[in-house]
Amino acid sequence: MKKVIYISILFFVYNSCCKDCTDDSNPECPNYNPCKNVKPLKANFTSWNLATSNEYMKSIFINYDYTLQSAEDGATFTIDTTYNYDNWEWRIGSETILNQKTVYRSNFPKNSYIPITLIARRTPNIKCFPYDKKIDSITKIYHFVETIPLGREDSSSRVFGKFRGAFTNVPDFVDTFEFTVINTPNSLGLVCIDTFPFTTCTKNFGVYGMNLNYAYFRTSYGCDKYPNRKMSWFYLRFIDNISNQIEVFINKGATDKNYPEMIWKGYKIN
Known about the structure:
This protein is mainly beta. It is built from 2 helices and 16 strands.
């Protein structure tokens, strides 16, 4: 009799558990969908700048797949990890690289157009996708241009001009404002960021890197009105090669509380 009662209790608990389970991603639930989080095969990858120097900047640049790259600095190419591949191969110019998630290459010919191809393979998932492929490929053409040398910044460069936008994470500075990046060419490679809340044109920034996608500047000062808003690094990047939308990251990675991380978003107006 005790055995019957024990089995009955187990059956009740199991039945109640299954009845209450509605997570279709859980194999133990009655409504389990084995295809919910599965994607058909698709080859895809992205690229980003500054692969070897300034490693801490990867988190800033990794999200944007710029088709315009620096010939000298090169670029890092990374497979799209939201897709699953059994094996894959890269073809960069005449070179073939097997099964590397990330590939970095530099010193491309200046002003060259280089095709980058990813070929991905996987056993077709016919159960979820009746027409799933076992191989897919994608080719992107990247334009590699000369990095702007320090001290030779051209005033016509995309990063010079007037910008309008607002901080996204500075509660005491919520209003939209404009600032200007001005070229002051000399052997030190200086620029001026004018009318920003924490700076004036009496002090300049040293250029640490610049191309048509981005520029990053170095300084170390604030102003008397906001002594806890000092600026150390100032990264300005366009989100793509087409639009005028930009993001600015200030003091990214700083540990000194006098150099708080600040993010500004906006667009170039002229």
